[in-house]
Specification:
Radius of gyration: 13 Å
Strand order of the largest sheet: 1-2
Shape: flat
Order of helices and strands: EHEHHH
Strand content: 15-25%
Helix content: 55-70%
Number of strands: 2
Length: 71
Amino acid sequence: LLVGNKIRDEEDESLILSASGELGIQLLGTVPFDPKVVEAERMGKSVFNAFPECEAVRAIGEIADRLISMT
């Protein structure tokens, strides 16, 4: 399984989709680049605690749900 991280735009997402197809690896999902992750790191906190509603945390939650549903 493949997870794309720090995806900035459609070009990044397209590259990940292409790579997963070429390698025959299922793309589980992508996590967008989110400045809130950087901000949480600078604060010395987990992004899950500092910004639980940010885009990256939502995307990670969706990926986790997909992974759980596969088991």
